[in-house]
Write a structure and sequence with these properties.
With 320 residues, the chain is α+β, with helices and mostly antiparallel strands. Helices cover 66% and strands 7% of the residues. A hairpin with a 2-residue loop joins strand 3 and strand 4. The N and C termini lie far apart (55 Å).
């Protein structure tokens, strides 16, 4: 029964997410004219990446359905819409949509609509009523999704090079977000991001896609260079394939305030460690407490020790 309700809840969350994405697209479509056909030269790397992804999705889902692998098919559509389309592509194109002067804005809108329509068709066998409603809201050329053409794979819409480039950008964004999260830096806090690589292709990727990379990485400025020259020694760093990424420490946190916060956390952990060690060295507690309670306290002690090590290491870094 619990599994059933979890499935229902997941389906509800998924439907809400796709609906919110559709509303976002509709709001922007209302403000602009979207061409029926697109000039391929206007498509950016991000556009080609998502179009290539949905093109491959059509091929894989069709093959899965032909083999009656319905669970695999719907999971692929779910993952595409939730992750690639809603979490990544929509965030990538927002800077273009919010600037009317961007010459690629119409290409972004066309790509949003085209990709959503194709994905809804692939989802339709599994969620017919929701997909019909969403399809009707974004498509005015056909009466029903049920009589529309099924998406078919085309080699003309396979962009392997662009897929590779965008995956590099995504790796960098994930790495930066991990660093910021570990330092408790809020998303609203902007900071310069230095991308250092001796690989000409890597530098070209970040230079070409600096606009949406900056938005995704909460960067005030993206600086791409071949050497580490001009970057402070205390800059926070992280690595991706063939590149190092640096963020100036002073732009991420107020060092004095962070030391003060971590010092308070250190004192709090000292108290927890003293309490937990005291309990685990108390013969009365060990002999009388249920084994589950003892094991729970041991787990707490281990957690406090790990946190203390992390806080101590961080304080040492900030004080040097």
């Amino acid at each position: 029964m619990r599994f059933y309700f979890e499935r229902v809840e997941n389906s509800r969350n998924f439907a809400n997410k796709v609906w919110n994405a559709t509303r976002f697209i509709l709001m922007n479509l209302d403000k602009s004219e979207v061409p029926d056909q697109i000039d391929m030269g206007m498509l950016t790397n991000a556009d080609r990446w998502i179009l290539s992804k949905v093109n491959t999705l059509a091929k894989e889902v069709t093959e899965n359905m032909d083999k009656f692998e319905l669970g695999i098919a719907v999971q692929k559509v779910y993952d595409f819409l939730w992750d690639e389309f809603c979490d990544w592509y929509i965030e990538m194109v927002k800077p273009r949509l919010y600037h009317d002067s961007d010459p690629t804005k119409s290409a972004a809108l066309w790509t949003l609509k085209h990709t959503l329509v194709r994905a809804l068709k692939l989802l339709h066998p599994f969620m017919p009523f929701i997909t019909e409603a969403l399809y009707q809201s974004v498509n005015d050329t056909e009466d029903s999704i049920m009589v529309s053409d099924w998406p078919v794979y085309s080699s003309d819409w396979s962009f392997e090079a662009e897929e590779s480039e965008i995956e590099t950008i995504k790796d960098a964004v994930r790495a930066i977000r991990a660093v910021r999260t570990s330092m408790n830096v809020p998303p609203s806090q902007k900071a310069r991001v230095f991308v250092v690589s001796s690989d000409d292709r890597i530098r070209e990727i970040f230079e070409k896609d600096a606009l949406f990379f900056a938005a995704l990485a909460s960067a005030s400025e993206v600086i791409v260079q071949k050497e580490r020259e001009g970057i402070a020694d205390d800059a926070v760093s992280t690595l991706i394939h063939n590149a190092s990424i640096f963020i100036p420490m002073e732009e991420l946190v107020d060092i004095a305030k962070e030391i003060e916060r971590l010092t308070r956390e250190q004192k709090k952990l000292e108290g927890e460690l003293k309490r937990s060690n005291g309990m685990l060295h108390n013969e009365k507690f060990l002999s009388r407490a249920p084994q589950a309670k003892v094991e729970e306290e041991k787990a707490k002690l281990k957690k406090y020790e790990q946190l203390m090590a992390q806080v101590t290491e961080r304080l040492e870094q900030l004080r040097t």
